[in-house]
Automatic annotation (TrEMBL):
Species: Falsiroseomonas oleicola
Name of the protein in its database record: AtzE family amidohydrolase
Domain Amidase: residue ranges: 19-444
Amino acid sequence: MSAAATAAAIRSRQLRAAEVTEAALADIAARNPRTHAFTEVTAARARAEAAAVDATIAAGRDPGPLAGVPYAVKNLFNLEGVTTRAGAKIERGRPAAARDAFLVRRLRAAGAVCLGALNMDEYAYGFTTENAHDGDCRNPHDLTRIAGGSSGGSAAAAADGLVPLALGSDTNGSIRVPASLCGIYGLKPSYGRLSRQGSYPFVAALDHLGPFARDIADLALAYDALQGFDAEDPAQQRRDAEPVSGLLGAGPGGLRIAVADDHFARNGHAEAFAAVAVLARALGATRRVTIPEAARGRAAAFLITMAEGGQLHLPDLRDRPGDFDPGTRDRFLAGALLPAGWVVQAQRMRAAYRAAVLALFDSVDVILAPATPFVAPPLGQAMTELDGRILPIRPNLGVHTQPISCIGLPVLVVPLADPAAAGTPHNLPIGVQLIAAPWREDVLFRVAAALERAGIAGAPQPLG
């Protein structure tokens, strides 16, 4: 069941949170081995939280809007009593977390039940969730293919119905890429909207946290529950919560919607652009806009990512280089050795690029762009062809997401309900980015909900 239906059934006492939790734990035990989405199942915690929800209801008190709803988190969110591994061998020997991450506490306060931690790329540095330490995460639509990354376990678990909600992180596209490849909704909110306290960092200047779900109402419920000011995250701005669940019926009327061209009309396979065209037709969006300097903005994001990531892990690169995945280690080493002048210029470029992009939103409310340049490639495939060039898959899965995340815009990935409408290979899922100005998540949810009602957006069923 959806998160909304589950919470309603539990609140009305048609179901008990305890029985929902037991069913979910049994389902994970039976089906997780095929995707390897979960790396840690917190069964004792889940049972205790479910019992607390049931006791609250029995006492006649409100358990919260997500009463008894199962969820799980990317393995870089702190869970009290659990070591936060961040997909890395090095972290396994660290002490267990002393308390939950802020967003985990928000979901618990809303009545949700945490089932565990989910697979990811090592230290969130990747787009495939092919993990040398925890094993590869597989796409539930085709088990021979990647789930995307770095929040691949989060997307796979939600897409496969193991949980109706999951949390992930997005630095350069790590929510949006797996959401597209697994055919579900994923939200990267505005930079500073949701607290990152209690999550393992990657790039402080670019890190975002956000939810995944199989339908837009569930994504809205999760987003509403996650909002709240937290002084422990210096990036978070003190803003009132702006719930979106009540806006889903408003529709996109009056919104100015355009399609991104130039960089976003290149660097991909036919299905990526066909998916954007399907949404544009459904929304009557005929205007095209150029996001200026997107390629240079992406280049700046690359340099900032490399430099901050390399400096963060420099002590372990010196003392324990053999305990990294070799591919991750080499990228961190390269970042640690970047000239300081390059990083300064990258930050200047990012600031100028952000100002130029923000000016677009004086005349447009939502921009459509591909979320991934192609559908999920096979596990282990290293190279692909893009615009006549043979290029590595891993970095180029983020070719359309990186230019957006580096300037903090809110983005909601909408899955195409019928991948055949975009002619995707093997009928694999693919998504489209809805992009808005900072703090305008509301317009994204309005557009996504209208597309879902029209049957254009929706999570296609994975393998049985």
